[in-house]
Amino acid sequence: MLFYRYSVILVDYKFSYTLKMNSITESTTIPDLLRNVVGYVHDENTSFLLHKVKENWVEISYKHVLDTADAISSYFLEMGITKGDRLALIIENSVDWVYYDQGLQQIGGVNVSIYPTLSESEIEYILNDSGARTLLAGSPFLFRKILKVANNCPNLQRIIPVFDDYQKYLPDTELNAGVISLKNLIEEGKKTIDRYKKNIEIAREAILPSDLTSLIYTSGTTGTPKGVMLTHSNFVQNVKVCLEQIPVINKDDLFLSFLPLSHVFERTATYHVCCAVGSKIAFAQSLELLAKNMAEVKPTVMSCVPRLLERIHDKAMKNGTSAGGIKAKIFLWAIETGKEFREVHEAGKQASLILGIKKSIAEKLVFSKIKEKTGGRLKFMLSGGAALPKNVGEFFGNLGIKVLEGFGLTETSPVMSVTEYHRQVYGTVGRIIPGIEVAIQDVESKNIITIQTHESFDENFECAEGEIIVRGHCVMKGYWNKPLETAEVIDKEGWFHTGDVGRYYKGNLQITDRIKNMLVNAYGKNIYPTPVENTYLKSPKIEQIFLIGDKREYVTAIVIPSKEVLQETFNLNEEFFQEQDSFIRDQKILDWLNADIRKYSSELAKFERLKSFLVKRNPFSIEEGEITPTMKAKRKVIENKYSEDISDMYLQETEAD
Predict the structure, then answer these.
(1) What architecture does CATH give domain 30-207+249-300?
(2) Which terminus of the chain, N or C, has fewer Cβ atoms within 10 Å?
(3) Which chain positions lie within coiled-coil regions (predicted)?
């Protein structure tokens, strides 16, 4: 135990020294971060980015990034881009995303990131609402999407494909916007750098922390997407205080990036953090190749979403127990040993000699093999975007893999709270970050139950649940072009109303659900779907679940089974998943799922338990408009789309009664 504390102190000291040399102040802006790293932390020839080209990982230096950014800035200045102009991009995570962002940021441009999965009409809306003057296109598929709506976007002056053979995709009709490949744009920019070098420096120095740096459009589970206005100060202060709360991140770390940079979580937790401290970023090729990439680059830190961790958990449990016999017994013994060791450690006690020996054996026989698949060097993973089921967090803790949870919204830059590295309370999203206030407000009376800050932290504090509201440096400037909508969520006292329900538990923030998600059954009982859904998601048979029951006598659900497990259990081919009927009616499959539904129902209150369910053949999808790009279910869309089947399900249950 003494060694653990000592090692943390060493890490803290190392990080404090880095911050002293590369301090983040009230006046620091986004373009300052990377240049401060080059000035104080790394030589300009040090590797910053890694990406895979064919079969090899190629390293890109800070110098190359900054020189390329200067060329892009020079081109933009030549075409008349000025401070405050919006410059859009629709592209997967890549070095080109970084070049473009750095190029526009240092001349005061505003990054308008568009999710690659959005429809043509949504892309058109965002381009017109933001008034974007340029648009970076990341692939031929996305380029063709843009071409269909480009002439409906009068402000759009340049479309910039990242590939060279874009001419073959151009339409027969004339485009209002010019088209130039990113490669040619950079070459053109290099020709004018001497002329604009001083202008770039002047523009960079003229940026204020209060200036707009990004418009990130909310997913929109209901209504029209809104452009969240985030400032340089929003992002920079968020990074600064998160680094204070997780002081083990340093210049020697390697982050593997796979969550979309068009989303605020990856933007802050990976990209901006690395720009601030000098950590490297490796861009994963795809979600499908993520496991392979982890083994190749051996990351030390990675941001992720709960669903990825759930899949790793499910696969590890299946691999460890499916063979049965002695192998399964060893696996389960190791997990139990890890749990015992973790609980002793979390209680601040010293593990006994025997427990220490057992833990070493478990590490060698089981844990090390699982860790090898992550590259074997992970300090921790940071989970965000949704609630991480408590049992999944504990599972990783049992293995000795630390998973920190954070909470926030696009409107809060995003982090409001994050787990402290040395103090973990599973099922919570950590301690409030420095410099902000987070209150719990009674949903009905609107009275504030409690206001908590970083400084007021008490590891024994608990309170009743209510809406989570926040004020401080993380809160957005407002919604672009939407003053009324802004006034609806930021009250006169400066509190931003998150729409999330939660409470404090052991001093940490704990999320219950979204207010809009709350179901009120026919008897007036309030039911928050997320905890109920997470209970059923413990089953390895279930991939997704959508709870139904608002204004109804009892709760039902649409259940999507794990395709892999379903195929293996019933020997199904791909044709089964391509059948026209959206739902599976096979009684054997229904009974198979019902066994786990009944098993996990025992953990819930009677009014929360499923009385019936539909089994959907394929997952909810972004393309079908059923979920948002951040994987949140669009409740009204789903209920309307499958209303007949839902009504039939309730009718059959009524007749059976």
Answers:
(1) 3-Layer(aba) Sandwich (3.40)
(2) C
(3) 179-206
